[in-house]
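User: I'm preparing a small set of examples for a lab meeting where we compare how different chains pack in three dimensions. I only have the primary sequence for this one, and I'd like the structure in token form so I can line it up with the others. Please keep the answer compact; I'll paste it straight into my notes.
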Amino acid sequence: MKYINLPKKLNQEFYQKCRIELVNLCQGNPDVVSIYEIGTVLYPGISDLDLMLCLKNKLNNDLNIEEQFSQELNYITSGHVLKINEENFRDMCIIDDRPDLKSKYLYGRKFQFSNFDDKTFEICRILDWLPVLVFTLLRSRNSSQVDVIKKLLIMSSVVISLDKVSKLTGNFQFCEFGKKVYNLRSTWFSNKNRIQDFDILFVESVVQVLKAIKFIDEYLIKNRYIFGDLGKVGTFLKIPRGPEFVFGDETEIEKGRIRLPKSFFFFLASQAVSSNGFISNHLKNSFDIELTDLDINDHIDDKLKKTIKKRIEYCNSLADFFRANNLKTGLFKYGWFI
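Assistant: Understood. Below is the structure token output for the 338-residue chain.
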């Protein structure tokens, strides 16, 4: 097995230089309203740099900022930044509510972010990310080369999602795995067994996410957030350039496809039928059955149903902004469809 893109020893000054570079690239650009940073650089050389641009609702010019990135900025950002329009920017915590998101102002107009603290928003964030993480883990696992940095970042995202499951449910069975991942990241450059530990924990990541999917499904059904029978076992969702999910009673990897339990079917199907926007319609067309015949929302708690609708309408609005301004990369959610 060939290991590529191994971590390099970097310092905080390297990251600060990259932040300053992006600010300098954007200064004077009338389409850029603000720049924010998502997350925290805890482990230089392991951590990436997640940067987000707040843009005018209607761009005056083609946005080609990423084409101007230096080799250093391109490396540490994986060649792209997230983009949200001014109208939707203050509500971006509807998708991701990490506290560190709100404090990393870098340039331009400062925003007061809206809070979406109800438990149903956290449920949606978990149902959003867990299946995507399984898909990403499997795609990375099946690659002929091992991209070490990429896999370390995926494992970090796994720990964040598992932590959300623990805090939501009060069950902390996933904490020990999180400690192992954080220890691997924090001791990478001094750990002589790092590659061996890395390989073991990556395999364990898949196991932990599948376990979390089953656990959150049981939690939602037990607490009546989702209720009723799936009906047609074997129903599947195939997203172009994205994952393919089969729905049933078990959580497993089946012939290269990911089998998800019924709560995930209702969540994804509800997004498809709760709005007529660009993303919703693509989701609807990605199922193998006619969803309007199934009374999807009759099986979902009223408050959760309203939250799902609010979130998918937000995603539809972001997609409309991207399409109207011919943007191709950096969509906060459901970038497969752009």
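A couple of notes for your slides: The chain has two domains: 9-116, 119-324. The longest strand covers residues 32-38.

User: Perfect, thanks.
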